[in-house]
């Protein structure tokens, strides 16, 4: 499983440098910057001590959708409850969550918002799982670089596990394809955008290796039944 770290609208070059240093220290190398603010490469390199290679290879994207296009699962990070989300996964539980779904996920993205306001509601629409760091006090809160280091540290054992085991080709499309099918089904049932629809998509992201094929079969059958019903209704009207 590949894991990338995506920074949305980062305003300070130093934070990009600190992110590069944090993820390289923990064994990762895929850093992506989405629509960053004014960027002084010299300031970023100073903070990315020993990690300039990761910083220089970091992808630059004009939109979040482009940055996440090749990702099967997107985990959004947040410091507070947002929108209609009901499921929040502590950072310390992500390693187990991802390890149990290794065969379903080829590439996972960890998404971080900007320094001032975090992820926007629009950003969260592209997220399947939301995670947060348990804090003992609300203030002072973590800064962006600290948050990235914590998540990189929590997930670093996955890098070591990949190196120790024989490589195997994960079924990277199953979970992603299921999420897309369920979104289409919710749209057909006029549930897309409603609280119930959000809740169903959250639960889809929690499906295990044995659950996903069953859910694919169920959704396919429901879609066929709906299509048959529509044709029958049209025939009756004519």
Describe this protein's structure.
The protein is of the alpha/beta class and about 240 residues long. It folds into two domains: about 1-165, SPOUT methyltransferase, trefoil knot domain (Alpha/beta knot), CATH 3.40.1280; about 175-235. It has helices at about 15-25, 40-45, 50-55, 65, 95-100, 120-125, 145-165, 175-190, 195-205, 210-235; strands spanning about 1-10, 30-35, 60, 75, 90, 105-110, 130. A seven-stranded parallel beta sheet has the order 3-2-1-6-4-7-5. Strand 1 (about 1-10), helix 1 and strand 2 (about 30-35) form a beta-alpha-beta unit. Helix 8 packs antiparallel against helix 9 (about 195-205). The longest helix is centred in the last third of the chain and has 27 residues, at about 210-235. The chain is elongated and about 65 Å long. Residues about 165 have low confidence and may be disordered.
CATH class of the largest domain: Alpha Beta
Shape: elongated
Largest sheet: 7 strands, parallel
Radius of gyration: 20 Å
Number of alpha- plus pi-helical segments: 10
Helix content: 40-55%
Spatial strand sequence of the major β-sheet: 3-2-1-6-4-7-5
Could you provide a short overview of the structure?
The chain has 238 residues and is an alpha/beta fold. The chain is built from ten helices and seven strands.
């Amino acid at each position: 499983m590949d894991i990338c770290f995506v920074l949305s609208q980062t305003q300070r070059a130093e934070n990009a440098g600190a992110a590069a240093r944090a993820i390289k220290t923990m064994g990762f190398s895929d850093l992506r910057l989405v629509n960053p603010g004014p960027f002084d490469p010299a300031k970023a390199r100073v903070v990315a001590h020993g990690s300039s290679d990761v910083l220089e290879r970091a992808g630059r994207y004009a939109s979040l959708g482009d940055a996440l296009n090749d990702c099967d699962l997107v985990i959004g990070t947040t410091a507070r409850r947002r929108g209609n989300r009901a499921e929040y996964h502590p950072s310390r539980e992500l390693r187990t969550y991802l390890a149990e779904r290794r065969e379903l996920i080829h590439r996972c993205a960890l998404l971080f918002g900007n320094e001032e306001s975090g992820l926007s509601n629009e950003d969260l629409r592209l997220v399947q799982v939301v995670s947060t760091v348990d804090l003992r006090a609300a203030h002072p809160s973590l800064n962006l670089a600290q948050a990235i280091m914590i998540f990189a540290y929590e997930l670093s054992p996955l890098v070591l596990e990949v190196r120790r085991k024989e490589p195997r080709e994960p079924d990277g499309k199953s979970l992603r394809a299921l999420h897309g099918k369920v979104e289409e089904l919710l749209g057909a049932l006029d549930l897309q955008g409603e609280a119930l629809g959000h809740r169903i998509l959250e639960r889809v992201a929690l499906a295990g290796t044995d659950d996903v094929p069953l859910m694919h079969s169920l959704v396919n059958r429901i879609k066929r039944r709906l299509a048959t019903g529509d044709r029958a209704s049209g025939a009756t009207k004519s």
